[in-house]
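Memo to structure team: turn this sequence into structure tokens by end of day. - J.P.
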Amino acid sequence: MSRKHRIWYPGAMYHITARGNKRAAIFKIKQDYEMYLTLLDEVRNKYPFQLHAYCLMTNHLHLQIETIRDHIQYIMKDLHSRYAIYLNKRLKTDGHVFQGRYGAQLIQDDSYFLEVSRYIHRNPLEAKMVKRAEAYPWSSYASYIFNEGNPYIDKSKTYAYFPEPSHLYYQRFVESNLDLKEMDVKEGKAWELVLQV
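Reply from structure team:
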């Protein structure tokens, strides 16, 4: 039985997840995290895309990716092949680094776009790895809430959902328990009332 094809179209956005084979660690030392981000940038030069958020955990990862003209399968296959080659070489092993095929949940509305961003950035906090989400070094969250540069991500789409100062409203959103399912979320919507916490 053949695998179901990924839905893709130019501009398609995804919540990408991937886990280590047999739940093993895919990032063991600082160099591994840095290499994954370096390879991600190299792959982006070949298959342009926008990265809105990321979080690299010890044995799994989350990416919020918006494609431009290339199918997500080419992006992820190239990225994870390169990383597997790097990690196997560094550890002097061979075999699968990732467990099965990566997950790719299609993001089709504004509410889900924001929920994915919040979920990704809260991951280390929910796993009790840190006391504050911004303290986790392998996530894009700190660059969002401190409004700092980060060469790997584009914050403009996410910030567009919030009034100025966008980084502070985004932080309130991530740290709140808002349920977006019942809300008419649109870019540029006045969030002042929604986010008075």
